[in-house]
Amino acid sequence: MWDLDTIRHINREAGERARSNGLEPFHLEREAQLDLMPPFPFPNLGDIAVELDMQHEWVDSLFVDKSGVGASDEPALTMDQFTDRLRELLRENEGGILLAIEEEGPFQLYVGVWR
Q: Range of 58's domain?
């Protein structure tokens, strides 16, 4: 288990890498993409993800179990619940949605959603 300082450090480093590599959020345009993509093809923007709030309209932050062993009654979304939520968001946002990892821990992560 990582302590909070370690998680903050990892997310600061992810933000620095994202900025130096010019990473952009993943643009999800169609539901069919959900069936073809790996579990988390979204860039980890770390602590620079907040900058997207100035460029795009924030929609949601999704707390997701990245380990694949979570249960549906836990606070973190399972992969099936996550995919279902992305489908809902696509239906609500005609032009598609932008996705990026905002924060990552050892077993869960937050995926930011913008339009």
A: 4-114
